[in-house]
Amino acid sequence: xxxxxxxxxxxxxxxxxxxxxxxxxxxxxxxxxxxxxxxxxxxxxxxxxxxxxxxxxxxxxxxxxxxxxxxxxxxxxxxxxxxxxxxxxxxxxxxxxxxxxxxxxxxxxxxxxxxxxxxxxxxxxxxxxxxxxxxxxxxxxxxxxxxxxxxxxxxxxxxxxxxxxxxxxxxxxxxxxxxxxxxxxxxxxxxxxxxxxxxxxxx
Amino acid sequence: xxxxxxxxxxxxxxxxxxxxxxxxxxxxxxxxxxxxxxxxxxxxxxxxxxxxxxxxxxxxxxxxxxxxxxxxxxxxxxxxxxxxxxxxxxxxxxxxxxxxxxxxxxxxxxxxxxxxxxxxxxxxxxxxxxxxxxxxxxxxxxxxxxxxxxxxxxxxxxxxxxxxxxxxxxxxxxxxxxxxxxxxxxxxxxxxxxxxxxxxxxxxxxxxxx
Lengths: 203, 210
Known about the structure:
- The complex is a heterodimer.
- By secondary structure, chain A is an alpha/beta fold.
- Helices cover 54% and strands 9% of the residues of chain A.
- Chain A has two domains: 33-144, Oxidized Rhodanese, domain 1 (3-Layer(aba) Sandwich); 151-198, no CATH class.
- Chain A has helices at residues 2-18, 33-41, 49-57, 71-76, 93-99, 114-125, 137-146, 157-179, 185-200, and strands at 46-47, 63-67, 83-84, 105-109, 131-134.
- The longest helix of chain A is centred in the C-terminal third of the chain and has 23 residues, at 157-179.
- The radius of gyration of chain A is 26 Å and the shape is elongated.
- Chain B has a domain at 53-161: Rhodanese-like domain (Oxidized Rhodanese, domain 1, 3-Layer(aba) Sandwich), CATH 3.40.250.10.
- Chain B has helices at 10-28, 40-49, 60-63, 78-83, 100-111, 123-135, 147-154, 176-182, 192-209; strands at residues 53-54, 70-74, 90-91, 115-119, 141-144.
- In chain B, strand 4, helix 6 and strand 5 (141-144) form a beta-alpha-beta unit.
- Chains A and B meet through helix 1, helix 2, helix 6, helix 7 and helix 8 of A and helix 1, helix 2, helix 6, helix 8 and helix 9 of B.
């Protein structure tokens, strides 16, 4: 009698053991096309340059920037703290390390938003979460943050406040560049000395 | 002794039922309705070439009727569509693009040699749906550069947009490093002295404030 039960139990265990030998092809779960299209239709993946500027200034630890342009463009100019994952190296191990983060929001950017959006679609298909696109890309970054345009004086107060923020952000992001300007070294030294005495003064 | 133990073949019966359930499960295990035909690697190659985008002046031939094998689909919502659209375009909003009927129709269009042109408000809006269709194997689908916004500006003389490049995207408009370095330095060649003075003043202000 018991032999039968043992036989059935053994059979189940052997079959279960067979699972070990299944091919690993389903290891990486890809987003199915319908969900992907649904996500694409939502504009929630876009963040503005103002939001990005604010996060950089406030040193928000919960986000990271990823530059999807080619390496030489990245070397020439990139946003502070950005990683470089060129769009054609999206499926390599290094990009997996950068993109596969559950707690950190990743913001992709390129010259404008087309390349970043393409990278977003591919990353989303590969199942990465918490990925966003900086709307307008670096072109918009220059237009809004680095060279903000003053609104007319009749503009609503929110526009004026936004302009104030952008003006401040512009100084924040370009201030360092001024201090290393070619012929200003004398002035720079003087400024630093002053700062030291301020600290000594007991502030 | 239980009543079911009377049957001498019960082990065999149990085994057969077990096997039938497993086999039936494997057979009826349905895959996803839509499958990617293009691997992720191929998709990266695809976007590297950018050959699925159509220039605005190229649709002139379609609009005057010289080419009749192109179906134009407006992927914006019905409201935007009703406010204005490219003549002859159909309205299928992005979320409905992968519906059963539409996939059936797209398959037929592909078989019959039709080309499908998607457009949104901008190229960006059509970019994602275009990529999904290409990944599903519909290589007859393309997206309109510049989108409806660009078309609306040029609709009266679309052919002339050949000489314009306002629809081009994906390129840098600035020499970023140069612009960023000089953004707040205004006429600094002559004003180096005054710049230093300003800075000194700033630091004394801080001293006073503390």
